[in-house]
């Protein structure tokens, strides 16, 4: 009997617990969650263990066979032994964005958290595929590439699937069609300068630009770009249902070796880097996902307008990467 894949989720907050719960419901992998304890006065809570127990009972109620466990770790990196044997490690640990806070504000604190986690993954699950969710995601994915030393095909950030899902949801609502029949891609950095690829987007094969008037399309693009912020302003914290579903989409493609083409933040260098004008950092592009991770970087065609948008987006990621490099001590401040 083939052994089941193991997916570990580090950081079982809003996004992490929904990733775990969706994975358990889908039932295609065993799930292990890791998170720190929470202190209230003298009382120490271990929410991750409680969440795992609750989910075990949820799948029992749903008649699903899946294995799900929760482990308490310390911020200093103790308690990670059960991550041994993980095929995929999803990292959501970190501080979420609060209203008015930019993704870059989060950089320093989240780099610190990530470096401890990555050192433990290197120690206990050196063959795992890493999916980084922690924001600012393109930068954190770059940090994960640098700190893990893993082949770049085994490190990817989740952003494009979420941005594309948001774009598709708005288009579906606009046209009254199923999102399933919409092929719309959002690439570039996961920030306000993300790049919707209108020229190749279509609904049931019909080009998007022939279905939605230009001005209205611009409004939809604007809403997509600020889709995260719209939810932060409503909830006071960042989104988690769609982000979790986007992670699960990626995990499913990896675990089932489906060879799906999904936009992910990946390290660009070499020939693909040259095509995209990126040398040695991570930005969102369509990639083919299979058992071994990123199996191919797709060189997607862009019209001139999109290419200009792409360059602006890359420039903005590059600036943050330079700040991260200083924090990582790879480069002294200029
Ligand atoms: N080790 C393990 N877990 C940690 C650590 C650490 N050092 N520090 C924080 N965490 C955990 C928190 O305890 C919390 O449960 O990470 C979890 C983060 O969850 P939330 O605060 O609920 O944040 P969430 O909405 O899930 O977002 C997680 O994804 O979309 C991004 O911007 C978002 O970077 C954020 C990440």
Produce the secondary structure layout.
Blueprint: E1 5-10, H1 14-26, E2 29-35, E3 38-40, E4 43-45, H2 47-61, E5 68-72, E6 88-91, H3 107-124, E7 129-132, H4 137-148, E8 155-157, H5 160-175, E9 182-183, E10 186-187, E11 195-196, E12 202-203, E13 206-207, H6 214-225, H7 227-235, H8 241-255, E14 260-268, H9 270-276, E15 281-290, E16 293-297, H10 304-327
Parallel strand pairs: 1-2, 1-6, 2-5, 6-7, 7-8
Antiparallel strand pairs: 3-4, 9-12, 10-11, 12-13, 14-15, 15-16
Helix pairs in contact: 1-8, 3-4, 4-10, 5-6, 5-8
The structure holds adenosine-5-diphosphoribose.
Adenosine-5-diphosphoribose (APR) binds next to helix 1.
Explain what you see.
The chain is of the alpha/beta class and 334 residues long. Helix content is 42%, strand content 21%. It has 10 helices and 16 strands. The chain has helices spanning 14-26, 47-61, 107-124, 137-148, 160-175, 214-225, 227-235, 241-255, 270-276, 304-327, and strands at residues 5-10, 29-35, 38-40, 43-45, 68-72, 88-91, 129-132, 155-157, 182-183, 186-187, 195-196, 202-203, 206-207, 260-268, 281-290, 293-297. The strands form 5 sheets. The protein has a 6-stranded parallel sheet, sandwiched between helices. A 3-stranded antiparallel sheet has the order 9-12-13, with helices on one face. Strand 3 and strand 4 form a beta hairpin. The model has no long low-confidence stretch (mean pLDDT 94). The structure holds adenosine-5-diphosphoribose. Adenosine-5-diphosphoribose binds at residues 10-16, 35-36, 73, 75, 92-94, 96-97, 113, 133-135, 238, 240, 243.
């Amino acid at each position: 009997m083939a052994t089941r894949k193991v997916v570990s989720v580090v950081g079982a907050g809003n996004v992490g617990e929904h990733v775990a719960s969706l994975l358990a419901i889908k039932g295609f992998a065993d799930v292990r969650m890791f998170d720190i304890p929470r202190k209230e006065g003298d009382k120490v809570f271990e929410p991750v263990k409680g969440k795992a127990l609750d989910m075990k009972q949820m799948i029992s109620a749903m008649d699903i066979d899946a294995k799900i466990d929760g482990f308490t770790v310390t911020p200093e990196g103790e308690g990670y032994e059960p991550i041994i044997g993980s095929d995929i490690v999803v990292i959501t640990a970190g501080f979420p964005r609060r209203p008015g806070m930019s993704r870059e504000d989060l950089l320093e604190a989240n780099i610190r958290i990530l470096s401890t986690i990555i050192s433990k993954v290197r120690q206990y699950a050196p063959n795992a595929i890493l999916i980084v969710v922690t924001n600012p995601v393109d930068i954190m994915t770059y940090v994960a590439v640098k700190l893990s030393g893993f082949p770049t095909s085994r490190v990817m950030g989740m952003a494009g699937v979420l941005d594309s899902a948001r774009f598709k949801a708005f288009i579906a609502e606009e046209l009254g069609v199923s999102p399933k029949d919409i092929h719309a891609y959002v690439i570039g950095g996961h920030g306000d300068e993300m790049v919707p690829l209108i020229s190749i987007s279509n609904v049931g094969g019909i080009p998007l630009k022939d279905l939605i008037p230009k001005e209205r399309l611009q409004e939809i693009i604007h809403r997509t770009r600020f889709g995260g912020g719209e939810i932060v302003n409503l909830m006071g914290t960042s989104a988690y249902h769609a982000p979790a579903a986007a992670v699960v989409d990626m995990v499913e493609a990896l675990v089932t070796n489906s060879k799906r083409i999904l936009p992910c933040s990946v390290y660009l260098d070499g020939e693909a880097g040259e095509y995209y004008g990126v040398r040695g950092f991570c930005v969102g592009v369509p990639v083919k996902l299979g058992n071994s991770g990123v199996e191919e970087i797709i060189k997607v065609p862009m019209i001139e307008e999109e290419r200009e948008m792409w360059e602006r987006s890359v420039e903005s990621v590059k600036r943050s990467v330079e700040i991260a490099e200083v924090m990582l001590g790879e480069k002294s401040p200029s």
